[in-house]
Amino acid sequence: MTASDVRLQPRKKGLTRTQKRTLSRGAQYVVFVAAVIAFAVSADWGRLKNQFAQWSIAKQMFPDVITLALKNTVLYTLSGFVVGLVLGMVIALMRLSSVGPYRWLAGIYIEIFRGLPALLIFIFIGVAVPLAFPGTEIVGGTYGKVALALGLVAAAYMAETIRAGIQAVPKGQLEAARSLGFSPARAMISIVIPQAFRIILPPLTNELVLLFKDSSLVLFLGVTLEERELSKYGRDLASTTANSTPILVAGLCYLLVTIPLGFVVRRMEAKAQEAVK
Amino acid sequence: MSETPPAAGAEIEVRGLHKSFGDNEVLRGIDLEIGRGEVVCVIGPSGSGKSTLLRCVNLLEEPTKGQVFVGGTELTDPDVDIDAVRRRIGMVFQQFNLFPHLTVTRNLTLPQRRVLGRDKAEAARVAAENLARVGLSEKADAYPASLSGGQQQRVAIARSLSMGPEVMLFDEPTSALDPELVGDVLAVMRMLADEGMTMMVVTHEMTFAREVADRVVFMDGGVIVEQGDPAQVIGNPAHERTRHFLSRLLDPAMAEVEEGTPEQPAKSD
User: Fold this and answer.
1) Rounded to a whole number, what is the distance in Å from the CA of B170 to chain A's nearest CA?
2) Would you state the pLDDT for residue B7?
3) How far, in Å, CA of A245 to CA of A237, rounded?
4) Minimal CA separation from B84 to chain A, in Å
């Protein structure tokens, strides 16, 4: 009797905290399961399967969806990444410069290209550049245009990442390098930037994943059959077959790359976390 | 090698040095000469400006006013090639500042190759030689993170020595170390002093100052309060402020009680 008295005393009324927590969690599960069931029951799976999962159509996409479409997606992404990295590095260094106008220019660039949808930049590159410079071709044709458009967008994000990475390198590193006689530029290149890149490798890889998806905007540039990437390829095939299976297959191809990359990023982040300890 | 201190001519000369951070005047007119081969320990309470003074000597801090000469070259001359002058001045930091992404050997060879333009073999030879001097040859391929603080600091000293400096600056080289690791670092510094290196050492190690220094400089509030023979400055200080500082240092328990006047915040290094 005394034991239960003691236990009862601090309780105002009704349930203990543990009981409340169990109850509210239980309610969440019930709602979630009910929603899934409602969705599964009400959806017309037969029609969905017909429209999105036609095995015969999926089969005829191979090997082109890999050898052409995925290959182009990867090419576009990597070329955009390289342009973005180089340009982003320049902008990051300008942003950290002691020269005022450099800092402002870099700041303006970052604000503009982070604030605009990537789609508009693709349209701009596709339309405005040929208008402004008639007769000139961007080097590399479509590949060059994509690299430029993706690179311009990526550079804005990467510049901020790189700047943060450089600033995360302890000040003592620069001081040690300078006191050994390194010039500011040499100290930056030999000592600070290599360490900064170790820090920003996970966010940079994330940027790669984003670019991989943004490469689908090539759609708006107008490309030849040989230059199609996953989204364009999937959509074209979907309209010729009047069936959406190609869209699903293209989607799976994206995941084929982005999920492993995401895994790599998490591994790197965990490793970096460990190194800090 | 060890010459008689000031007679050999000033290796380091500081004239009328002032340094302010914003409204905070950290150095209020410092004049100091350090002769070739002389070992000078700078002591004083935190916030006294001693680290800032040291950092002005290789221009890691830009003096607000005044002149700094090292080996006859004026560092405060705006036209001087500061990178060239710094090659002659070794600097050892409280936090070691080894390059964590490089092995011990690469920490020693990279500056030689990039700054002095030495070839690979020569840089490696000099690095091995200096690593041996600080007794860490077996750590040549280790990364800094795997070394103890004391070992890291000895590597940092070896890195500076590999550049062949004429002057060595030490900024509280043992302050970040566990007490049992201090001895190894001080032993290396003692060896350098015995070899005739010109050294300016900001430190709290009174035993080291007493035994190794040719001269002790006591700073407080941004000025040099007194300086002279270690035995005299530490053993029998002329000024009340020096006595006060030393008594607090020797009896830390008293410091808690006497912490009446708020000190200037320590300048972060």
Assistant:
1) 12
2) 37
3) 9
4) 6
Q: Pick from B84, B93, B145: which is nearest to A172 by CB?
A: B93
Q: Tell me which residue in B86, B98, B101 faces A181 most closely, judged by beta carbons.
A: B86
C-alpha B10, offset from chain centre: 17
Euclidean distance between CA atoms B127 and B102, whole angstroms: 14
Both tokens assigned to B60: 């890691």
**β-bridge partners, B17:** B30
Q: Which residues of chain A have pLDDT under 50?
A: 1, 277
Residues of B at the A interface, defined by Cβ within 8 angstroms? 58, 60, 83-84, 86-87, 89-91, 93, 95, 97-101, 110-111, 114-116, 145, 156, 159-160, 163, 269
A245-276 vs A71-95: helix crossing angle, rounded to 10: 40
CB-CB neighbours of B193 under 10 Å: 22
Overall average pLDDT of the B33-56 stretch: 94
DSSP string, A27-64: HHHHHHHHHHHHHHHHS-HHHHHHHH--HHHHHHTTTH
Query: Within 10 Å of residue B191's Cβ, how many Cβ atoms?
Result: 14
Which amino acid is residue B258, in one-letter code?
A: E
Rg (CA), chain A: 27
Task: Say if residue B259 is exposed, middle or buried (CB neighbours under 10 Å; 0-12, 13-18, 19+).
Answer: exposed
* Apex B250 CA angle, B244 and B251, nearest 5: 85
pTM of the predicted model over 0.80: no
Q: How many CB pairs under 8 A join A and B?
A: 60
Closest CA–CA distance from residue B77 to any residue of chain A (Å) = 17
State pLDDT tens for residues B225-268.
999 999 999 988 999 999 999 988 877 665 444 444 444 444 44
CB-based contact B111 A181, cutoff 8 Å: yes
CA distance A250 to A256: 10
HEC sequence for chain B: CCCCCHHHCEEEEEEEEEEEECCEEEEEEEEEEEECCCEEEEECCCCCCHHHHHHHHCCCCCCCEEEEEECCEECCCCCCCHHHHHCCEEEECCCCCCCCCCCHHHHHHHHHHHHHCCCHHHHHHHHHHHHHHCCCHHHCCCCHHHCCHHHHHHHHHHHHHCCCCCEEEEECCCCCCCHHHHHHHHHHHHHHHHCCCEEEEECCCHHHHHHHCCEEEEEECCEEEEEECHHHHHHCCCCHHHHHHHHHHHCHHHHHHHCCCCCCCCCCC
Q: What's the pLDDT tens digit per position in A241-277? A: 888 888 888 889 899 999 998 888 888 888 777 665 4
Asked if B114 and A186 come within 8 Å (Cβ–Cβ), the reply is yes
Residues of B in contact with A198 (CB under 8 A): 101
In the prediction, which pLDDT does B128 show?
96
Whether the CB-CB separation of B37 and B2 falls below 8 Å is answered with yes
